[in-house]
Amino acid sequence: MAETSNTCVKRSNGRRNRKYIKSLENERGLVLNNAVSITEEILLYFEKLYANPVGESWSIEGLDWSPISEESAISLVAPFTEEEISKALFQMDRDKAPGPDGFTIAVFQDCWDVIKEDLVSVFAEFHRSGVINQSTNASFIVLLPKKSTTKKISDFRPISLITSLYKIIAKVLSGRLRGVLHETIHTTQGAFVQGRQIMDAVLIANEIVDERRRSGEEGVVFKIDFEKAYDHVRWDFLDQVLEKKGFSPKWRKWMNGCLSSVSYAVLVNGSAKGWVKASRGLRQGDPLSPFLFTLVADVLSRMLLRAEERNMLEGFRVGRNRTRVSHLQFADDTIFFSNTREEDLQTLKSLLLAFGHISGLKVNLDKSNIYGINLDQAHISRLAETLECKASGWPILYLGLPLGGNPRAGGFWDPVIERISRRLDVAAKIERLQRDFLWSGIGEGKKDHLVRWDVVCKPKEIGGLGFGNISLRNLALLGKWLWRYPREGLALWYQVILSIYGSHSNGWDANTIVRWSHRCPWKAISQVFQEFSSFTRFVVGNGERIRFWEDLWWGDQPLGSQYPSLFRVVLDKNIPISSVLGPTRPFSWNLNFRRNLSDSEIEDLEGLMRSLDGVHLSPSVPDATLWPLSSSGLFSVKSFFLALSQFFGSPQVFPSKFVWNSQIPFKVQSFIWLVAHKKVNTNDMLQVRRPYKALSPDICILCMKHGESADHIFLYCSLTIGLWHRLFQLAKMNWVPPRSILDMMYIKFNGFGSSKRGIALWQAANIALIQIVWRERNARIFEDKARNSESLWDSIVFLASLWAYCSKQLIVNLDRDLQYAIRVEGKMDVESVSNYDEVKNAIKEKGLCPLKHSNVQPPVVLYDVGLAPKG
Length: 871
Hints:
The protein is α+β, with helices and mostly antiparallel strands and 871 residues long. It folds into three domains: 70-403, no CATH class; 473-646, no CATH class; 656-811, no CATH class. Helix 4 (82-91) crosses helix 7 (164-178) and helix 30 (710-716) crosses helix 31 (718-730). The two termini are 28 Å apart. The model is unreliable at 811-871 (pLDDT under 50).
């Protein structure tokens, strides 16, 4: 416990030291060491940052704004309801750092019944006036270092700590805004829009770069960096965008109210300094900011599309359909695809400069990069001079994943592996990191891997820890693309994949036949199609898209597999259900065979016709797919992963309920898991793992008579078996030791009855006994200390009592008398403890579990009459 506390203190001090600003370099290059000078420099920086530059406001015309519908505009400004406010509140993270008000969201959640009427009144007033007072909209700015060594104020990332009341208002507003963004945001933007995901852009970028390379056509990829993206957004431009996109005057007034009353105090080394009034920018930490920024960034997409219409920009033409892709956006992360004509690149540069001037989002060309496809270095360098940016090589990191390299190359995944390594201090390397971390932790040296990794990866129910196999988990994630494909026909990623690969013969999926030379994501996705399709079921509507013979729509197998003799001789194997059965009853049975059927085949056909008698077609209902592995019928990565990792063969006997269902510390549960596998470092195991570490391998330190093994030390040792006999005598049960400690865990003795309380107490007592025996063994070996069985029994009682106290099964009604007693099948009474304060203090000292009801002494059901220590 002391070691853990010291570690926490060291980490806390380390974080504080990293954020502490001892010196700062100003714009003139002078190093400031004085606290007052540092504070003045920081405040001056933020005053300039959030001040709107002097100049005219510009508007932009002639774009396709894709405004939201009138119904959506009206719904955005509908009166707020208590249910809507409550839903938003309880979706929020309760423990986020508070703002100037000092209240966390947890206060509002825990006191909801008390404050809900006042909160609803606040929303009603905001709905009427659209005004948020300055104290409610005040913020603290926390400066987080971007890198290990910080010299300038620009080396820190400003994060806003906002008052909880404003955060709740913004959460409700952002929930409404999120519901309509898909109507007005172009498909090239992948962030903060319902139904779009970060991996969409990664897939598209990899596919089109790979296809461009294989085609031999020249091209460039231009990745830009916006300078202080959120902080530089002009409010007047945002208001124009909202107007053009069909948002009502009332909504625009609300947005202005959320922005115009913002003020900041900067936390300099933990102290709030000054107040800065903002006139531009969006706060990082405001729930509204990502959605408002997406609306602003969408204007750049509209400008680029307008230039494409006028043939001023080309972009990349992808696949047989020549689908055009000129750029992709994910929030402020923007990447462009262009041919190598300097005129096009000059047009792109001009558009970026114009967009930066009107919106405030200026591109930092020094941090932007251009990458060539099928170009020599001299050519790409010339193009970089045109754009005034850097020329760089492949692969690159795009949205955290590699782009433009060979996934099979050894170094392709190094950036991803490096990130995982950094978090802890492809598949095989990641699993090795997991294994080392599980058994050795961080910075604790190399330790033995006590249990095989394939066992660790199994579900807990059959003896593993549920880690899951990395390769199978990857297949499950890839399966999500196959589920999304037939459902997202309007998405840009769908159009790109369809254009490059075409459709599958089943009419639902993309073509899964990918040439071996491809180095793109869809090649890996297509390889999981067979496993994915084996679980997919079709739901018959009008029967026009489901293949009669080859799709899984009736029974546990496709009809072609159920009736192979008929399938072999049928002419059209891809015929849809509607063409076979017809739209109405009686069915037309339009089946054409290559020859006359034999008698056995006629019998099969009659059986087929009888089995389909319950089928009903619905001409107005389209066919659909179903995922039977989840109760909702919708695909989930978890259900697919569990299906892929299903245990084959005879089920393994493992006492999972004994190990994991008991309310004891996880560290102890992990130890019991090792005992169940007989993988603890007993002397017989040490002889196998590290013979030079085994102490007296033939002698058990507890009895000094027999060799030490898991079964012996935890079950058959004379000291241990005496403790077991005492426990069973307490339960008034006759007992014969089982064959192994695993059997001991697996057998349901129900020593204290079959009620939940009795089972919880019995499990706690059993596990406490095993734990105390192991502690005693280690104390005798490493500390040369020994205790008698009476002392060990008292320790078992104490541990079992602590764990039983923490058990949910033993928490009782607070209104009951402290002298609480419960009958357990007539065998004994469980009574409350008189020395409650001693137990409470012991729990605090041990740090085993948090105390509940700190202001009320609860009825404690801890010690059994026979378990209570003497004296």
